[in-house]
Amino acid sequence: MRRLRLSTGLALAGLGLIAGLGTAAPPAVPAAEANFVKSAIESRLFRVKLSRHAVATVADAEVKKLAEALVLEDNKVIEGLIALAERKGLKSPKDMNIERKELFDRLIRVKGVTFEKAFVLTMTKDVKQDADAFTKEAANGQDTDIKEFAARTLPKVKAGLAKVRTLADVMFDG
User: Fold this and answer.
1) How many C-beta neighbours within 10 Å does residue 102 have?
2) Is residue 23 situated within a structural domain?
3) Domain count, the chain
4) Is residue 22 a part of any domain in this protein?
5) Could you read off the pLDDT of 46-67 as tens digits, one per residue?
6) Domain of 53: which CATH number?
7) Whole domain around residue 50: which residue ranges?
8) How far apart are the first and last CA of the chain?
9) How far apart are CA 85 and CA 82, in angstroms?
10) What global pTM score does this model have?
11) What would the 3-class secondary structure string for 32-95 be?
């Protein structure tokens, strides 16, 4: 009886090991890079939501044009980041973090030209932080897939930063 239980236990354990071979978890992603992916998604979720609000409420055609471009560009990057996160076994945030949520809530209460200026300043700061994070990841990343994604995406991030800065320079006289 004892031999039967032991051999049954070993057989079941063996089946568990064999069944698990095809479903191995992806290798662990370094915490800094998991945080990079999470933060990049959260940043874009914030920008898309605030940009949609800008598209719906601003009068300035150039600010509206910038907001529309940010929605399109950031949504594309979000899709790539989420797909990357899934491949790496990382959980993707579904919404912006609490700090960005609080900032969003404050900004949408502002109206008119004041909102337009606050929007452009906020986008300038956020896209600059994003460009810095993508530059750092592209140069120093440990995970090859995440590093390559950052390097491929960096030119788009820098182009977005140039657009935002150009509009900020016009709005704020250089």
Assistant:
1) 11
2) no
3) 1
4) no
5) 999 999 999 999 999 999 999 9
6) 1.20.1260.10
7) 32-171
8) 86
9) 5
10) 0.82
11) HHHHHHHHHHHHHHHHHHHHHHHHHHCCCHHHHHHHHHHHHHHHHHHHHHHHHHHHHCCCCCCC
